[in-house]
Amino acid sequence: MVTLRTPDIKPYLVTRGLIPENQEHPIHFISSAITPEYYFFRRNHFSYPVLSEQSFLLSIGGEVQRPLTFHYQDLLRMPSKEFAVVLECSGNNRAHFRPKVFGEQWEGGAVSQGVWRGVALRDLLKFTGLNAAAKEIVFEGHDSGKRTDIEGEFVFARSLTLDKALHPDTIIAYALNGRPIPYKQGYPLRLVVPQWYAMASVKWLRRITVIDTHFNGPFQEIDYVYYPEKDSDEGKTPVTTIHVNSIIQQPLNRNVLDTGMHQLYGMAWSGTGFITTVEISVDGGENWNRAAIQPVPGNPYGWTFWNYTWVVTQKGEYTIMSRAADSSGSIQPETARWNRKGYGYNAYSTAHVKVE
Question: Which DSSP letter does residue 244 get?
Answer without folding.
Answer: P
